[in-house]
Design brief:
- The protein has 400 residues and is an alpha/beta fold.
- It has 14 helices and 14 strands.
- A hairpin with a 4-residue loop joins strand 6 and strand 7.
- The longest helix has 21 residues, at 276-296.
- Residues 242-247 have low confidence and may be disordered.
């Protein structure tokens, strides 16, 4: 078999991630590779830290991108903060809350579960009861934007409860950062992780994290070595935490993914140019337009409006529609990717992402037209033009 250079067919990425990447970010990837200890690269690292602090809305000194995807960011947080025997209250209302539980167990900790139904937010009264019943807990872990369901939980309130009970707060912001408000310092979050491939609209492969001073004190006072050498922040701090544009020296830890970090710098710069508030408003506007079109097609949301994410939309599959066949037709005929349901929602919903560069008027209108065509192909009776008009009215009312 002859193997040739790989040129992927362009897709419109409107699933749970990755999202579309802008030409600016793709162009940044192709810039000349330099050494990971080059003075110019150290300068870039300092700027990335500043830009991440802006994105997270924090002054935390220990704010950096882990050189691996979001799952490694999650593991970085847990392996550094949780020691054998530690008790952690884990809020689970979807697939990624379950991954938090797995991390606690693999660290040798004990997970106290606060379970909510898939499609519902974390129940604060249940969390408070769990904390009252477990005064020896050291941390509370929760997902801000649950990617498996499209639900937003009140992590400000969760972090406040954690602090009230002398616990660290650990927050998954993989799908929320850049898409909805994330305010680390104002909300009192101690440890948070995200991914670059969602609302930041960068290439996959990096995981921004940030730790409060209280969390850093716990890391440096550990009784047991961190079980992962690569993710041990006591070592990584020497590379990302020291040094400055005034000439501080970095210690070698690993060879950073230089070109991916060029891309992250560009995507964060674009976020700063747009401003966080404008980005949050853009995601909400595109969600409202999608909602108008979806409902005109006779489709419904699986999540109630009060906890619904604008950037991850969970749509009920109508009776009589082959959900996998529709997704395949979208990909084959329209070059559009949307996501299937996970876990309890497998086969019952589609997950439509409006994240980062994918959250735009042309892409939303194209998706609505494509969905209508695919529903008609399966015998549905829908009005594509009316659905597009309904969505367009939302944009027009916003001045677009």
């Amino acid at each position: 078999m002859e193997i040739r250079s790989f040129y992927p067919q362009p897709r419109l990425l409107m699933g749970p991630g990755p999202s579309d990447v802008s030409d600016r970010v793709l162009s940044a990837l192709s810039r000349p590779t330099i050494g990971h200890l080059d003075p110019d690269f150290i300068f870039l690292m300092d700027e990335i830290k500043l830009l991440l602090q802006y994105a997270f809305q924090t002054n935390n000194a220990l704010t950096l991108p882990v050189s691996a995807p979001g799952s490694a960011g999650m593991e970085t947080v847990f392996v550094n903060l949780i020691e054998p025997g530690d008790k952690v209250v884990v809020c689970r209302n979807g697939a990624f809350g379950e991954r938090m539980r797995e991390n606690v167990v693999r660290c040798g900790g004990h997970a106290v579960m606060v379970d909510s139904k898939w499609g519902e937010a974390v129940q604060l009264d249940q969390l408070e009861r769990a904390l009252d019943n477990n005064p020896d807990a050291v941390a509370v872990a929760a997902v801000h934007a649950e990617t498996s369901t499209g639900v937003c939980s009140d992590v400000h309130a969760i972090a406040t409860l954690a602090d009230k009970h002398n616990c660290l707060s650990i927050i998954d912001a993989v799908t929320s950062l850049g898409g909805i408000p994330v305010k680390v310092d104002e909300w009192g979050i101690d440890a948070i992780y995200s991914g670059t491939q969602k609302c930041l609209s960068c290439v996959p492969g990096l995981s921004p994290v940030s730790f409060s001073d209280k969390a850093v004190q716990r890391i440096t006072a550990r009784k047991h070595p961190v079980q992962s050498w690569f993710l041990d922040l006591n070592l990584v701090i020497g590379y990302w935490g020291k040094g400055s544009q005034t000439g501080g020296k970095r210690s070698y830890h690993h060879t950073a993914p230089v070109n991916n970090l060029y891309a992250l710098h560009e995507s964060l710069l674009m976020l700063k140019e747009e401003t966080l508030s404008a980005s949050w408003q853009r995601h909400q506007l595109n969600h409202q337009a999608l909602k108008a079109g979806i409902e005109c097609l006779g489709l419904s949301f699986a999540v109630s409006a009060d906890v619904r994410l604008p950037q991850l939309n969970t749509i009920n599959v109508p009776e009589g529609v082959n959900e996998a066949q529709l997704r395949q037709q979208l990909l084959n005929d329209w070059q559009i990717e949307i996501g299937a349901g996970l876990g309890d929602l497998a086969g019952k919903v589609w997950r439509i992402g409006l994240m980062g560069h994918s959250a735009s008027q042309p892409k939303v209108l194209t998706l609505i037209s494509a969905l209508a065509a695919c529903l008609v192909a399966q015998g549905g009776s829908v009005d594509s033009l009316a659905a597009v008009k309904s969505a367009t009215k939302v944009y027009e009312s916003a001045g677009n």
